[in-house]
Write a structure and sequence with these properties.
Elements: H1 3-9, H2 14-26, H3 31-35, H4 39-65, H5 71-111, E1 117-124, E2 130-137
Antiparallel strand pairs: 1-2
Helix pairs in contact: 2-5, 4-5
């Protein structure tokens, strides 16, 4: 990604990070990357891969229904889908902090000293309450 694109996009906020991980965990198919604004970088690859793996598994299932069962397709499809989902979730968790660091380096290089960075998150708990966190870095 070019420096101009990084500056134009800005940082991945804490909310985008958390909601993106949840989207990838519960839905997959690049949805979490779209929430984080990274669909064009990698999200579409996960979407295509997961659709392809699901199609391979479905093809194997159809072959079993029609009587010419080839369970290799089912195993490869389901296994590939599982590997892609795990990889997608790890990517959604790990990449945003590194991307944000890169943004702040580019911003510092272009504009001088970076502005203070802050983040906030609220996590609901099972008892009806919640836990809040706030951080400020200079």
């Amino acid at each position: 990604m070019r420096e101009e694109d990084i500056l134009a996009k800005g940082t991945i906020t804490t909310a985008e990070h958390v909601i993106g991980v949840a989207g990838g965990l519960f839905f997959g198919f690049g949805i979490g990357h779209a929430v984080q604004g990274r669909y064009g970088e990698r999200g579409f690859l996960f979407m295509l891969g997961e659709f392809a793996a699901a199609a391979v598994a479905l093809g194997g299932l159809v072959s079993c229904i029609t009587g010419d069962c080839n369970d290799t397709y089912i195993i490869v499809g389901v296994g590939g889908f599982g590997v892609l989902r795990v990889w997608e979730i790890i990517d959604l968790i790990v990449v945003p902090p590194g991307y944000n660091e890169r943004y702040w380096r580019v911003r510092s290089k272009v504009y001088g000293t970076p502005a203070p960075r802050w983040g906030a998150v609220v996590v609901p708990t099972s008892g009806g309450g919640g836990v809040a966190s706030f951080s400020l870095r200079f």
